[in-house]
Amino acid sequence: TGYVTLDRGYKNTGATKSAITFLDGELGILQYRGYSIEDLAAKASFLEVAYLLIYGELPTQEEFSTFETAIRRHTLVNEDMRKIFDGFPVKAHPMGVLSSLVSAMSAFYPDLESGKGEDQTDAHIIRLLAKLPTIATWSYKRSLGHPVNYPKNNLDYIPNFLNMMFSLPVEDYTVDPVVAEALNVLLILHADHEQNCSTSTVRLVGSSQANIYSSISSGISALWGPLHGGANQEVIEMLEDIKADGGDVSKYIDMAKNAKTTGFRLFGFGHRVYKNFDPRAKIIKKAADDVLSKLGVNDPILEIAKGLEEAALNDEYFVSRKLYPNVDFYSGIIYRALGIPTNMFTVMFAIGRLPGWIAQWKEMREQKEPIGRPRQIYTGATLREFKSIDKR
Ligand code: CMC
Fold first, then answer.
1. What PROSITE patterns does the record tag this protein with (predicted)?
2. Strands 29-32 and 35-36, how do they pair?
């Protein structure tokens, strides 16, 4: 026990064995349970992928309809939970509201306290999948000062989300299939990414046998940071700044190259594991072009993003450090085209990542992983004598 290997940021530390997601950072490969991300994004529905991640196999028709029906039946959120929303300031960031309310869910299902109620895990999984979109859209409605929309269970998962998000009492709202399909692809691409920061957080919290809601809520908090899921919001804000600045990308490239002194990083660039390209970014870049043209949206920010990418990919600083656009670089441009406001981008990531967090939490419990507890190398004072306050 006296010997500790230091690995800051766990760059080379494998924390677990896992059968969920395969990732090869050199070759740019990402697979969920053996299925390529390209195949799934093109052919599957988000809930099929959720089932695959959580239960290990693609569902049969019968399994899928049981799963989907259960989710439909649990979309409503307890009215007492709705009251909690009223206590938040209108300007509260939806990610803070989301993590608080997911944490609050544990109070509504108290059989979970202290690791009890494991037999209820499937029910809790369904509740999380069903209620996260409701909570997410309510936090958005609250930020607008609008009445919330209740879920409509005749709608599929994504149309239901869109309806709760955009429907107004004064105006009919019809779901555009182009929007629903684009969202389906984005959610699938975000659904899991092995032992990333938020997933490791979910596992670490869950390893103390904390309940699933507390564990997932911690994952949402970890995702919020700008170096992780929060990067998608930062990217758009950065692109808007460049636009307001006259569109000159070179100034931002220079700032990023001097990240050590400027503290500025090119958001949406670089990845801990991908050192060649991020396969998700490749699909999203193409989708951004498709979706914007199908929706007839002309967003000048897309051109700025492409210019920024090109400038970076031709710059020695980025090339030598193997910094490529990641999943967050183009996703915000699609969200914007779909009408999703910037402060909801990371919430969208959370909705997408939820099945992955659940799958990893479940695997961790089933494998009976020990409590996570890293060691340290102590660098503080050696033993010294206590002096009473009047002598200090
Ligand atoms: N802009 C400028 N320089 C960068 C960037 C960037 N975006 N990313 C890394 N670097 C530099 C870094 O300064 C370091 O330089 P040097 O070798 O001179 O010290 C080198 O590249 C290696 O970077 P690192 O910070 O040691 O790499 P990491 O694996 O610890 O960090 C990262 C990975 C994703 C946190 C980082 O690339 C980053 O901060 N990117 C911007 C934020 C971002 O887009 N995050 C989303 C990640 S993908 C989706 C997700 O997880 O949510």
1. CITRATE_SYNTHASE
2. antiparallel
Task: Say whether 271 is catalytic.
Answer: yes
Residue owning the nearest CA to atom 46 of ligand 1: 228
**Strands, E, within the chain: which ranges?**
21-24, 29-32, 35-36
Looking at residue 35, what DSSP letter applies? E
**pLDDT digits 0-9 by tens, 193-227:** 999 999 999 999 999 999 999 999 999 999 999 99
CB 179 within 8 A of CB 162: yes
Beta bridge partners of 171: 168
Q: From the candidates 271, 290, 299, 390, give the one annotated as an active-site residue.
A: 271
pLDDT in tens, 34-57: 999 999 999 999 999 999 999 999
Burial class (CB in 10 A: 0-12, 13-18, 19+), 245: exposed
The full length of the chain comes to 392
Any ligand 1 atom below 6 A from CB of 268: yes
Distance (Å, rounded) from C-alpha 197 to C-alpha 219?
A: 8
- pTM score: 0.95
Give the ipTM: 0.96
Tell me, using a 6 A CB cutoff, whether residue 263 lines ligand 1. no
* φ, ψ (nearest 5 deg) of residue 373: -160, 85
